[in-house]
Design goal:
Elements: E1 7-11, H1 15-27, E2 31-35, H2 38-47, E3 52-56, H3 64-74, E4 80-84, H4 92-97, E5 102-105, H5 110-136, H6 147-160, E6 162-170, E7 175-183, H7 192-202, H8 205-221, E8 228-233, E9 257-262, H9 273-283, E10 286-292, H10 300-305, E11 309-312, H11 314-317, H12 324-339, E12 344-346, H13 352-360, E13 365-367
Parallel strand pairs: 1-2, 1-3, 3-4, 4-5, 7-8, 8-9, 9-10, 10-11, 11-12, 12-13
Antiparallel strand pairs: 6-7, 6-13
Helix pairs in contact: 2-3, 3-6, 6-7, 7-8
Length: 388
């Protein structure tokens, strides 16, 4: 146990049982805050820190799952134990799916209550230590554990979502377009990859994609993006019928939009992928295969998408001026694509020598920090906005 007294938030609408359990836990060394309702528990969470929560699941007003959701708004690692007098265990599956640490049947033996409280506190400490260890290693994609914690963070992310745009230029430096890159104010999703992983885990890729496309469409309507707009598309979004809707916010600008489909995720679960890509092209969209050289091997993505553009993964382009093997690979890929009439974008250009080598390798288009960093679009019209 921690050196300081661990704090337990105890929630139950049965006042006599609440008092007994509070006395028992206090007697073995816990500092207990006892609440007779979910609403009181939320107020307690806002006013202090706790090491574990033990809550009845069936309460009038805000029930135990509501308390769990409130906990996850407050702390993604705080252990939650639910109790119930229902021997049928109705709701156990849902509770466990949503990240409940343990589920106790009333009346809970006092020894079991104390043992569970001590275990919850220890596991909460372990969760925080694991999170610190991941941060120390620069890992952030797996920092959220249970579903409710992920759902609440994802909801905050959608509310704060905004787009920035990174320029893409011809090899001679003249402008060509910009890639729309998603950003959000939720610290648990520090980069787009972590946000898309969360959306995929929650089954909310369609929701994320629709918000992104609405935002890009609004920007294009203001003529605030010079040239063509590259918009990232998770392969599973190809299953979203809203993407194929001629009246969708982005569809009206389709001739000026290039949909980037990453090669890092496979197309196995996309229904009628060839037909859907054809319907997108009929609307006026063009397709780019993104992250070539950094995703799955083989020809599946290339053959299914028949891309109009290819983007070579930045990790392959990185250090192209210092690594002859990378230079040869990029040149070979660019050579094949050029023979097929497919323009190649070299991503991740950060130095002048990388730029020179990428151009020498046959990359017609360039993107990276050397070319320009992602920035918010101007409020007014851009220099060469999309024509309506």
């Amino acid at each position: 146990m921690p050196e300081t007294k661990p704090r337990i938030l105890l929630v139950d609408d049965e006042t006599e049982l609440l008092a007994v359990n509070s006395d028992i836990l206090s007697g073995v060394g816990f500092t207990v805050t006892a609440c007779t309702s979910g609403r009181d528990a939320i107020a307690a969470l806002a006013s202090g820190a706790f090491d574990a929560v033990i809550s009845d699941i069936r309460m009038p007003g805000l029930d135990g799952l509501g308390v769990l959701r409130a906990v996850r708004e407050h702390d993604v690692d705080l252990p939650v134990v639910l109790t119930t007098g229902d021997p049928s265990l109705e709701g156990v599956s849902e509770a466990l799916d949503h990240g409940v640490l343990h589920y106790l049947i009333k009346p809970v033996p006092l020894e079991k209550l104390v043992e569970t409280a001590r275990r919850a506190v220890r596991l909460g400490l372990l969760a925080r230590l694991k999170r610190d260890a991941l941060r120390a290693q620069g890992e952030s994609d797996h920092l959220i554990g249970d579903r409710i914690g992920l759902e609440t963070a994802f909801a905050r992310a959608l509310k704060s979502l905004h787009m920035v745009y990174q320029p893409i230029v011809h090899s001679d430096g003249s402008g060509f377009g910009s890639e729309a890159l998603v950003r959000c104010g939720e610290p648990l999703f520090p980069h787009p990859g972590s946000l898309f992983l969360a959306a995929e885990r929650l089954g909310r890729l369609f929701d994320l994609g629709r918000v992104i496309r609405v935002s890009v469409g609004e920007t294009l309507a203001r003529h605030a993006v010079p040239g063509l707009a590259f918009v990232n598309l998770h392969p599973l979004e190809l299953n979203d019928d809203a993407l194929l809707d001629p009246g969708a916010p982005l569809s009206r600008f389709a001739p000026d939009v290039i949909l980037e489909v990453t090669e890092r995720a496979h197309l196995d679960n996309v229904r009628n992928v060839t037909d859907r890509v054809a319907r997108l092209r009929k609307l006026g969209f063009r397709i780019a295969l993104d992250d070539l050289g950094g995703g799955y091997a083989g020809l599946t993505s290339f053959a299914a998408l028949v891309p109009d553009f290819v983007k070579i993964d930045g990790e392959l382009v990185k250090g192209i001026d210092k690594h002859p093997l990378r230079a040869r690979l990029v040149a070979s890929i660019a050579g094949v694509c050029n023979d097929l009439g497919i323009p190649v974008v070299a991503e991740g250009i950060e130095t002048a020598s990388e730029k020179e080598e990428a151009v020498r390798a046959g990359c017609e288009l360039l993107q990276g920090f050397l070319i320009g960093r992602p920035t918010a679009p101007p409020e007014g019209p851009g220099l060469a906005g999309v024509q309506e």
